[in-house]
């Protein structure tokens, strides 16, 4: 049944029905009794307004854009689900898309979501998005950045303590008696990655230890990554511990070591937990990021921006937890 048919049945104007359905009865000076009669009938027949028509009438799409690097990985996937679940409680639906770390793709997605009239944007930005995100900021558009900062721009931000957590993990390896600790990371200028590397280097420097760093190209093909990893381990046979900037690099290395029959007598720690880490023998020490807490703060922040026309820049840093397991014990 259409709004026009509802209006005919109730013997009122189409505009009256539209105002009531879209929550503007008081604005349209419609009596409470009439508004109740219309809403009761709408509920009785199970009428669902067309989403596009409703957004045109109210000026609100009730949608939020969520832009991440890879919706399928063990970090962004759960966070996206938590965000979606929480926003649904406020009546919002989530449109999300993956950038795979490509700046051009990320900017295109950003522009498309704005064109589609999302009411707010939640984004884990790619490197080089300063200008595009700054345009959105300048328009006072509801925006929350998470996981990685936009260097050179003040924005609403939610993240974890990458630098201090990285230091904590590496210091734990040092305290366990490991002396030749290598860091395996990606060749990236993403702020969270540079913070994790900085934490590693500072701990080794403070303890008068030599650093060994392997930076694998981001999105490198399987064979190339395998070759670089094996060459690195062969070049430094004295290594007694490996620290990984991401969980997927740790998983990849464990697979490589197993495939060549090489003993995993290294002390091991990784940034970010993974479901495999508790199943592997020895199970893997890690920094566990508080995914649900991060998602909750993101939703809290974007809802605050949607409800307040005065922009207040907020920053929320949620500490991660060092989970000590058998892989880091000598």
From TrEMBL:
<keyword id="KW-0805">Transcription regulation</keyword>
<dbReference type="InterPro" id="IPR000843">
    <property type="entry name" value="HTH_LacI"/>
</dbReference>
<keyword id="KW-0238">DNA-binding</keyword>
<protein>
    <submittedName>
        <fullName>LacI family DNA-binding transcriptional regulator</fullName>
    </submittedName>
</protein>
<feature type="domain" description="HTH lacI-type">
    <location>
        <begin position="1"/>
        <end position="58"/>
    </location>
</feature>
<dbReference type="Pfam" id="PF13407">
    <property type="entry name" value="Peripla_BP_4"/>
</dbReference>
<keyword id="KW-0804">Transcription</keyword>
<dbReference type="InterPro" id="IPR028082">
    <property type="entry name" value="Peripla_BP_I"/>
</dbReference>
<dbReference type="GO" id="GO:0003677">
    <property type="term" value="F:DNA binding"/>
</dbReference>
<dbReference type="InterPro" id="IPR010982">
    <property type="entry name" value="Lambda_DNA-bd_dom_sf"/>
</dbReference>
<dbReference type="InterPro" id="IPR025997">
    <property type="entry name" value="SBP_2_dom"/>
</dbReference>
<dbReference type="Pfam" id="PF00356">
    <property type="entry name" value="LacI"/>
</dbReference>
């Amino acid at each position: 049944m259409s709004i026009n048919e509802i209006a005919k049945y109730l013997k009122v104007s189409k505009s009256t029905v539209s105002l009531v359905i879209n929550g503007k009865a008081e604005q349209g000076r419609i009596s409470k009794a009439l508004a109740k009669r219309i809403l009761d009938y709408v509920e009785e027949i199970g009428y669902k307004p067309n989403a596009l028509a409703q957004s045109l009438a109210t000026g609100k799409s009730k949608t939020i854009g969520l832009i991440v690097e890879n919706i399928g990985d063990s970090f962004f996937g759960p966070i996206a689900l938590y965000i979606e679940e929480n926003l649904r409680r406020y009546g919002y639906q989530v449109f999300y898309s993956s950038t795979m770390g490509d700046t051009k793709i990320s900017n295109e997605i950003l522009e498309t979501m704005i064109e589609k009239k999302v009411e707010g944007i939640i984004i884990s930005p790619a490197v080089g998005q300063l200008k595009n995100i700054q345009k959105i900021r300048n328009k006072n558009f509801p925006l929350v950045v998470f996981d990685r900062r936009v260097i050179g721009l003040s924005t609403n931000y939610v993240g974890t303590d990458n630098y201090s957590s990285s230091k904590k993990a590496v210091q734990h390896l040092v305290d366990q008696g490991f002396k030749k600790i290598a860091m395996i990371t990606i060749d990236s200028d993403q702020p969270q990655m540079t913070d994790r590397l900085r934490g590693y280097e500072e701990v080794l420097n403070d303890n008068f230890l030599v650093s060994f760093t392997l930076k694998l190209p981001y999105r490198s093909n399987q064979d190339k990554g395998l070759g670089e990893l094996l060459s690195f381990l062969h070049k430094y046979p004295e290594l007694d511990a490996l620290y990984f900037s991401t969980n997927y690099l740790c998983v990849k290395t464990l697979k490589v070591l197993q495939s060549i029959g090489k003993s995993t007598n290294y002390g091991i720690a990784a940034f970010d937990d993974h479901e495999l880490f508790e199943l592997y023998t020895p199970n893997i020490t890690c920094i566990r990021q508080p995914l649900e807490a991060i998602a909750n703060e993101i939703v809290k922040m974007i809802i605050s921006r949607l409800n307040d026309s005065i922009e207040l820049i907020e920053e929320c840093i949620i500490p991660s937890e060092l989970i000590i397991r058998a892989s880091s014990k000598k």
